[in-house]
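Standup notes, structure subgroup. Blocker cleared on the calcium ion input:
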Amino acid sequence: MNPLHVVILAAGQGSRMKSALPKVLHGVAGRPMLHHVIGTAKQLGAETIHTVIGHGADQVKAVTPETSVNWVVQSEQLGTGHAVAQVLPDLPDDARVLVLYGDVPLTRVETLEAMVAELDERALALLTVTLDDPGGYGRIVRNDADQVTSIVEQKDATESQRAIREVNTGILAVSAKHLKNWLPTLSNANAQGEYYLTDIIAMAVDHGLSISVAQPGNAYEVQGVNNRLQLAELERWYQRREADRLMTEGATLADPARIDVRGDLTIGNDILIDVNVVFEGKVSIGSGVSIGPGCVIKDARIADGAQIKAHSVIEGATIGANAQIGPFARLRPGTELAADTKVGNFVETKKTVVGEGSKINHLSYVGDASLGRNVNVGAGTITCNYDGVNKFRTEIGDGVFVGSNTSLVAPVSISADATIGAGSTITRDVADSELAVARGRQRNISGWERPKKSD
Ligand code: UD1
Ligand code: CA
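Run returned:
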């Protein structure tokens, strides 16, 4: 099979976005549209992904780390045909070339695979869609035998051509050899004074190629984004597809319209996800996990049976089996909770490892710390990990009981089975099984008379 080269057009300005950000960098599901298209091209097995940039080229390059992208600058946007022509020197003659668009982010790999799989030099593959309102699009012109003969742009179309509802998505595939022959001969003598890529359809017909037409399963797959309303429509479609996938894979969603997946979410069976939960980055969830309303979960691994209660915010954390988190917990990066742990309301953790069965149930900050098994951290415990310049660690052994309202001034180590009296400020290490109390002694004064109001 001849190598596949993908050309992504992304040079246009996108003025209707009303934005300082180049259009193709606007996000769907938390990722720039262009990155969705690059991802699709990769999945298709493209040998090279050529991306034509112009407006905002530097910004586009800066946020696209893909070294596999061949950037081609089109400094003046003279039309889609002119844009593809900029790539010709970089295309091997034997390549199959698929043209995609940086602002058409959600085309399914399967749809495109079908177009390029059988492609050879005798055919041009075209992706079309039939719309109730074809306004603005290039129309697919067919002859009496129903074969495609050309594409005519809306602005160049006759009255009767404008009535055609089958339109050009812009996506097509053809061999590089033909593009090299045809693109240099394009003319811009048309209503928009542009070099139209669509003019190659009539050329292909003239050269005796067959035009094979495919259609996407859903029109959203080929919808381009010109303004933020269309961006929002695609976002909703994407999210609905994700919701459907999750339900198919074993999640019960309280409302499939109120979940947002902005990354890769993998799940086990029997997951419960309540409303308004946002997933970001790479998240994996084991079986039997429940997630309460309003949680934000980013780059996390959650083991079987864990319960994440309402309004918890989790980032860069691993959560062991049957752990109970929240409501209103905040787990920051480097939090590793073993099985059967509990982190309750208004508790913040960071770079903290918590052993099996340990609990931090209320109103605490535990950072740069390691806790053994079966530790109980009382309400209002703070690890004082920062002296204004450096960070220090707190070590807590198995079975330690930390009384409420304790400050642990790091670096400090509390050995196994020690007890810390409530209200202590602990600045020195505590040995095994010791009780440490570090607070002002209570004095009770009898016969105390309250001050009286003076005249
Ligand atoms: C194009 C098609 C039309 C199709 C429609 C689908 C042509 C002549 N027309 O029309 O048949 O129905 O898409 O949306 O191809 N671009 C560049 N450089 C350029 C010009 C465009 O990179 O010089 C990029 C734009 O950024 C945009 C895409 O190509 O992403 C489409 O260009 P646009 O001018 O919007 O084409 P349409 O008029 O919509
Ligand atoms: Ca357009």
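Discussed briefly. The helical segments are 33-43, 57-62, 80-85, 109-117, 159-162, 176-182, 200-206, 228-248.
Next: hand off to the docking folks.
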